[in-house]
Amino acid sequence: MNEDQELIERFKNGDEFAFDQLVRKYTSRAYGIAYGILGSREDAQEVAQDAFIRIHRALPKFRGDSEFTTWMYRIVTNLAKNKYRWNKCRGSKVTSSLNAPIEGTEGDDALFFEAPDERMSPDKSLQFSELERRTQEEMAKLPEAYREALILRNVKEMSYEEIASLLGCKLGTIKSRINRAREELRSKLGL
Do residues 91 and 123 both lie within one domain? Predict the structure, then answer.
């Protein structure tokens, strides 16, 4: 029995502290997935909190057919997709800086976007910022399945196998989605 399974069993037996340990262990990962989909710190924090509320309610019925992390990622991903669609339908502008550090992540799970070199000339810095902005715009236009797979691979640095398991797809499908997403981005960005 791994550590997550032990914590889940303890929680099922009435130990609320075990759930607190799961939350501390996985909050930054949940936030990272949500942020990758939404691009907004506030929305990502909201989704991560909502995910753990749902997990708390559903955990007593969790059978362990999949790893806890896979189950958690599915919940976070679904909530983030719903929030993304809600924002899009309501005309909410979701903006963020690609070169800002992501709050709420730390340790091995910390997520950072590469910032322009401070010694970069102003014109190079402007070009870099423009490329970041255009990349984010074009990412938002990708089909959801492509965007999701690409974010899990490039932002969360998950393996193809982990992504396939998480999304319930075949390995070849995931590789194809990521490849097509990259090709579309290159084409639209003229790279």
Answer: no
